[in-house]
Amino acid sequence: NIHCAAELAYTMAVTEKCDVFSYGVFAFEVLTGKHPGELVSYIQTSTEQKINFKEILDPRLPPPVKSPILKELALIANLALSCLQTNPQSRPTMRNIAQLLAMDTADMR
Asked: According to the model, what pLDDT value does residue 11 have?
């Protein structure tokens, strides 16, 4: 199941890092407007850990043109990317994610 971290299939132990992986999948689903199965598979198998987030945005929505919005979307895409690391220990914690989002939101005020 692409919504679950690979290690869950082997250990059957649900951990916070599994939830972090699922959060990354969900974040990409919101950004792309569709199930990101192919994108997640690409990220998991690619040696290059970069994506052009402008290319993955939901094409049904008008492209963002304001710099603060682009910055927000880039942050979310980069956070989602970090959540999909194959090694669970390389993924951030949900606390880290919440802190980064809160700091960025505070900067927007």
From this structure: 57
Could you tell me how far CA 97 lies from the centroid of its own chain? 10
**Cα–Cα dist 47/67, whole Å:** 29
Identify each DSSP E strand in 6-109 by its residue range.
none
29-64 exposure pattern, b = at least 16 Cβ within 10 A, e = fewer:
bebbeeebeebbeebeeeeeeebebeebbeeeeeee
Considering only CA atoms, which of 105, 89, 80 is closest in space to residue 16? 89
Q: How many other C-beta atoms are found inside a 10 Å radius of the C-beta of residue 96?
A: 13
* Local structure of 96: helix, strand or coil: helix
The 8-class DSSP code of residue 34 comes to: S
Q: What is the pTM of this model?
A: 0.80
Contact 57, 97 (CB under 8 A): no
